[in-house]
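[agent] plan:
  1. take the single chain provided in the ticket
  2. run structure prediction with default settings
  3. attach structure tokens to the ticket
  4. add a short note for the reviewer (M.T.)
[agent] executing step 1
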Amino acid sequence: MKKVVTLLCGICLISLTHAETQYSPPPIQLEPLAKFSVDLNAPVWELGTTSDAGKRRIIPITGGTFEGKSLKGRILNNGADWQIVDSKGLAIIDTRYLLETDDGALIYLQTKGYRHGSAETLKQLAQGKDVDPKNYYFKITMQFETSSPKYSWLNQTVAVGSAMRLGKAVIYDAYTLK
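[agent] step 2 finished; step 3 output follows
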């Protein structure tokens, strides 16, 4: 009986191994979604150190635009970046704002990500200076919510963005993962 169980376990293991090597996950492909220009404005509220993670800052999002092949409109004046900045200058991005498409649909957007660079680069960004985005890392993930049938595909789409700070705006190219 012990030999039969061992033989069956061996056959199962061979079958599982074969099944695992027969398929592999499809590679990720990026498809352009839209270019976003997000307007930021004062006052920036500095709450100070609120946790071990760092200092909480709230930066108002006051408007902007977005445009792509299947998505175009404006950013409404009602959002903010609820970021945390750690002791090394790493900004943990957490934005929430509302998009309005050219055809009137409302889309809630939340982004999460990271921005970091050298101390000098971060100082220049804090002063509102234009800095070559190759000198710092600024990447985000995006999550959408909408009740619009036309844009409901966004509710189940994984999207990412590569961003840069330009004066009082954040500019980013957004892509969906296919």
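[agent] step 4 note for reviewer: The chain has a mean pLDDT of 90.
[agent] ticket updated
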